[in-house]
Model the fold of this input.
Amino acid sequence: DGEVHINELKNGNTEMFWNPTSEVRRQRLKRHIVLFEEQMDFESERLWQHVTSAINKGDQHKATQEKFVLEEEQRNAARERRESGAEWKPLLFRHDAGTNEWRYKYEDLRPWDPLNDIAQFEKDGILQTMERHLSTRMSNHKTTCINNQITRHKRSAKDCRRRKTSDQPSNHSQNTESSCSTPESVQELSDDDGKYLGFESLCAQCGKEMNHLKEIHSAVLSLQKAQQDIHR
Done:
């Protein structure tokens, strides 16, 4: 969010390369980092502190030297592990033998759920998602209601078939239609399958919690929009 100039050393000319507007400056993201004294030895700010200091002072030679020192220490550590047969176990990454690539252990690739997911944050190197547990309880309760109604429906259909078998003569059983009918499959149900089975509603608690979810839905969407703006 600051001015950037190009300095031509041969002739001493200076050219403006980037001059952000006040609008760009207002949109600057806040920097959130762990306090330096709380960082571990291999966290970036602490590990590269001498390189950063040299860069800030404009000492390119010193920055290069400090960078070489860090890289050489890493090479020596790797060499010592090979000689001693010690296995290197990364804390946050795993090696994918199929693709021969390193992958983040805690990656979460599921779609963002605006009704249940509130925010994503990092703690101790692990990306985590803050979730709203109400929708989880709602989903579990809804599943229980549907399963109970399926059981009742199957029981009703079974009783109906029993009556049909006992009431109708055996020689006419194949040609006699019954007032009871059973859907070909009642195991795969969607949200609207209650209507298909003749259920007007799941239960009073489901309806109440659904209304509650609708009320908080707009608030969650606004938070999601803010997160998208931050990512952009």
